[in-house]
Structures are given as structure tokens and as C-alpha cells.
User: Fold Transcriptional activator HlyU from Rubricella aquisinus.
Amino acid sequence: MSLFSKLFGGAGGSEPPKQESTIYKGFTITPQPMKDGREFRLSALIEKDGQSHHLIRAETLGSEDAANDAAIAKAKQVIDQMGDRLF
Assistant:
């Protein structure tokens, strides 16, 4: 990688890391934390049978791991409350 690419954010490493998915009651939950300054906003993708719902909440957490854990917990809560009506 050239010096200019390193300085100005070249193409290397621009893909966000793929998060580990969790299966819950037939739904696939994939945390997708969104960087917001020094914190991470709670966000997850909920999928089932080819349908998807992007869950985004206002909460921000200090670490990516904490945001992932909170996103999974919140997605499970939404699934319990809404079920298939989520789509």
C-alpha cells in the first residue's frame, strides 16, 4: 500500500468486519453496530424467510462488543413482541 493510500484512506480495509449471526426462534439476528464518534449505535439486521428488518436504536455504547450484545438482546425482545408481524 502506498504512503498516500495510508494517509488518505485508500481502498485497503474499507469493508466493515462481518459480525457473528445468532439464530433465535427461526429468525437470524446479525449485529451491525454503527460507529458514532467514539461510541457505537445499537443496530442489527433481523431476517427470516428472505424478509429483513433493519433495527436501529438511539442508544450508544462505549464498545463494539457491548453494542453487539445489546443489539442481540433488543432484537430478541422485538421478536418476542412482534414475531412475524415485524415484516
